[in-house]
Amino acid sequence: MAEQFTFPKGFWWGAATSATQIEGAAKEGGKGKNIWDQWFDEEPNRFFDGVGPGTTSDFYHQYKDDIARMKNIHFNSFRLSISWSRLIPDGSGEVNQEAVDFYNNVIDEMIDKGVEPFVCLYHFDMPMAMQEMGGWENRAVAEHFGRYASICFDLFGDRVKKWFTHNEPIVPVEGGYMYDFHYPNVVDMKRAAQVGYHTLLSHVFAVKAFREKDRTGGEIGVILNLTPSYPRSSHPADLKASRIADLFFNRSFLDPTVLGEYPQELIDLLGEHGVLPDTESGDKELIKEGKVDLLGVNYYQPRRVKAKENLPNPGAPILPEWFFDHYEMPGRKMNPYRGWEIYPKGVYDIMINLRDNYGNIPSFISENGMGVQDEARFMENGMIQDDYRIEFIQDHLEWLHRAIEEGANAKGYHLWSFIDNWSWMNAYKNRYGYFSVNIDTQERTPKKSAYWITAVHKNNGFEK
Ligand code: BG6
To answer: Ligand 1 centre from 367 Cα, in Å?
Structure first.
């Protein structure tokens, strides 16, 4: 007998994107430079196939047709981000009217087509003028972010009801200050901790501004990439390794944004190694004011760890990997086209953790998806036959459904991504969209998954 997977009424169906990754028009419309424009100017060869942020997927010009596509595949919601450097080219000064017009047009068009805008304020795209002040290392930049957020609420808050301060705030900390895959590509745990801390404060300033202004029933949240941390065994040393990985990569933002405080164990660990960030008196109380209404969860793959086998080399920089080793579990299922593990039950484990330890905060899957390199090889009869993506989405939805049945407060599922897009240093290497994009012609073509998900959206679920 076929099993029915029907989702709660009003479930949010859609996809996620970000400004730098889809808009293009990096030098148009009065946009200021951000760190990606700068980095590409400095080191174009670090970007896959030498493709930079100049054009990306041209949403800036094609937004009307793209929103029509969203309607055609029955999205009821869609996440985009506002580009800080488009709206306020130097990050802290005058507002750029062309950007206001652009975002007004996009928002109005979405509402007109019945697609609710979910708007994120920061998706990795620091204005260059702010980076020159030290970026998130400088507390003043967090304050400028609060002002920018407040301007967005004033400009668009009459129509936008779902706001998110940051997307994956841990990623610029990791990429920019620990593992060399974001600008300014330094490796320094003390600076990383400072960057993480000021990023959190910037979130708090934005939440406070929102609460002071919003009178219209809007909600504010944050989008976190949660990677459940699974130990190799139940041996205490493996359990400890997994707890520490969880502290660094999940709880460092999850606890302060949902519970209003940092885990003491993380503070102790950073303190022991002399890498605690600088704080000011009154910050503890301030952080309590940043608790969110809504949590977006990006889930791609788990983190599997084991106890450290060898001590770090003397003089090696302190990194989270001082405290655990990665564990390649035999038999785990891999995405052969991206190299990431596929573990759909992770969705369930995250949601049950939120139910049990985070007050069952309203949440949704804000990104989940399957990246595929050289996806054009799967083109047949004019369409990418992405059965692997259909299976991937369906397996994750099944576990999400089960978590909901068991009381998790999950309200939606957004795929990464709507259209293929430019992914930072990986540029167009891994394709994720329901629609493929030809980056030379900017032509969009629905993949097989676009047809499959349309039926899921229409039926608010599927049968298996
Ligand atoms: C997500 C990010 O974690 O991963 C996106 O929020 C990014 O911005 C996506 O594009 C895919 O990354 P990659 O490296 O596989 O292209």
So the answer is: 9
